[in-house]
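Hi all, posting the design record for the shared folder.

TITLE: backbone redesign
STEP: 1 of 1
STRUCTURE INPUT:
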């Protein structure tokens, strides 16, 4: 799953990584991004077709759902295109959530040890996401997850769907709506580009937010 991540790239490096036209925005470094907060995401607007970096609420609830409806932070790749709750957003409102790494917890001798997972080369990660207008009229999103691969599999059975460079543009293409077409054009980042290390349990507390959170714990 993906329930906590870090995102601290500045806008120029983020735009360079995306390699697509992106309306300029401002970013605040965050080392402990938790659900139920505003997060940065790249999406294409329905009216102008322009790509922009916007603030989306990390919690997905469609505008037609009532107050008792769930607010998932993740959507599985196995069901996102067919679930009535998600399929409309999958077809029309896909987005990219930039991150530098994410956290998972590994059970070790009766306790849970947090690990930080990131790219070996330090480049930003692009999580596949979907967004929807919430009942309050503001945009909310969910991050897609898939079965864990490579080194991530040793920490947790699932991981965010991280897209490779060639998949970013088609993922954001509003003309692509069919599940099978998207499946053939969109691919995840090769798992051998990922690494991880144990970090401080301070990350367990969402109020903790500083660069030391991603440092390896000896």
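Okay, here is what came back for every position:
SEQUENCE:
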């Amino acid at each position: 799953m993906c329930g906590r991540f870090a995102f601290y790239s500045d806008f120029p490096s983020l735009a360079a990584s995306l390699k697509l036209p992106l309306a300029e925005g401002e970013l605040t470094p965050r080392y402990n991004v938790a659900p139920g907060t505003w997060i940065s995401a790249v999406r294409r607007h329905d009216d102008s077709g322009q790509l922009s970096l916007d603030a989306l609420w990390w919690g997905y609830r469609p505008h037609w759902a009532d107050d008792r409806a769930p607010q998932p932070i993740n959507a599985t790749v196995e069901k996102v295109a067919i679930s009535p709750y998600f399929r409309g957003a999958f077809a029309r409102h896909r987005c990219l959530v930039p991150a530098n790494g994410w956290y998972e917890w590994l059970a070790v001798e009766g306790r849970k040890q947090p690990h930080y997972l990131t790219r070996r080369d330090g480049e930003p990660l692009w999580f596949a996401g979907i967004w929807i207008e919430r009942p309050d009229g503001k945009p909310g999103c969910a991050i897609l997850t898939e079965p864990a691969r490579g080194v991530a599999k040793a920490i947790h059975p699932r991981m965010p769907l991280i897209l490779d460079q060639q998949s970013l543009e088609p993922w954001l293409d509003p003309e692509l709506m069919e599940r099978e077409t998207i499946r053939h054009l969109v691919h995840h980042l090769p798992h051998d580009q990922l690494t991880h290390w144990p970090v401080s349990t301070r990350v367990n507390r969402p109020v903790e937010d500083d660069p030391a959170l991603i440092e390896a714990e000896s």
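COMMENT: The mean pLDDT is 95.
Let me know if anyone wants the other runs.
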